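Subject: sequence -> C-alpha cells, single chain

Hey, anyone have a minute? Need the predicted structure for the following. Not urgent.
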Amino acid sequence: MRLADTCGTGSSPAARMAAIASSVRLRGRPGSEGNRYAVSVGLKKRDSADCIKDYVKDILPAVREAGLKLPPKDRLAVDLPDDIEWPLD
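Reply:
Had a minute. Here:
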C-alpha cells in the first residue's frame, strides 16, 4: 500500500503515523555499521540519513494535506539523523 493511500482521510491518525514510521524505518538506520558497510561496498549509493531527510521533505505536503502534523521525533520510535529538520507545524 502506498503512503498516500494510508494517509487518506478515511484512516485514523494512529494508522497514518504508523505508516509514516514504517516508511521511514524502511530507509535504514543512519550511521549504523551495516549502513556504512553497504555504502562502502556499493550496495547503497548513500547513507540512510540522507535518504530519510529527503523522504521527510518529500512526504511533508501529503502529511499536511491529510490533516496531520509530524509528532515529536522521539514519539515516532525510529532512528533518525541527528541533523534532520523536523517540522512540527
